[in-house]
Design brief:
Order of helices and strands: EHEHEHEEEHEHEHHH
Largest sheet: 8 strands, mixed
Shape: elongated
Helix content: 40-55%
Distance between the termini: 73 Å
Amino acid sequence: MIVKKLTVPFVNEHILKNSTKCWLASATISEAGFNFVNDRLPKACERKLLTGLHLPTPPKLLRQILEQDKALIEMKIFSENFFHPKVYIFDTQTESYGFIGSGNFTIGGFSKNEELAYMIQDAKQVQDLKDWFEGYFTKSKPLSKEIIEAYEKVYPSLKEKEKEVRREVQKISDIITGKFNWDNFDLSRQYFVRSDYQTFESTKAGLTTPEVGEERLHVHRKLMRLHDDIKDELH
């Protein structure tokens, strides 16, 4: 069955609430995504987590997971290659569920983004997913304090690269959709800055507050200075 928003079967069909054991694999995990799932699972539910470190997972979250009851939650890091699967498997007392899709272990991956997942309930197919998971789990390293400390050193640069990619993708998206976005303009070496232009936005056209008046006066003074600077060069 096709699933557009994983939160729907997770919550509405009580899969998280009734789980006795789960196997969760994702390219990245966010604090909000982890808490969404973890807080809804029964305390006695056994959890196995698997991720890579090519996409930024907050070190704070890794420490939080490491400090939890090791009898109930076991996490490993796959480092042999870029780890990009998104697989979620749940056992309940009566049935097993498997989900394969595009959504990471994040709130965006579960509900906010445009993602696609497929829910599997066939017992053999779910077992095939478990076997796949355990194959990678066996080859992965247990989460440890040493891994987290090493990862903390590179996490800031990974996070900054991710932000830069998002900014560039947003620019392309704005061009495609025709959306105006101030962030797409580099005014760092321009005479007039962003706030100068925003003084004359339509939302301020009818305002007569002292603050707006001061903004207009500020731009007026800049225009006069510009006039004085260039008037002798123009004929």
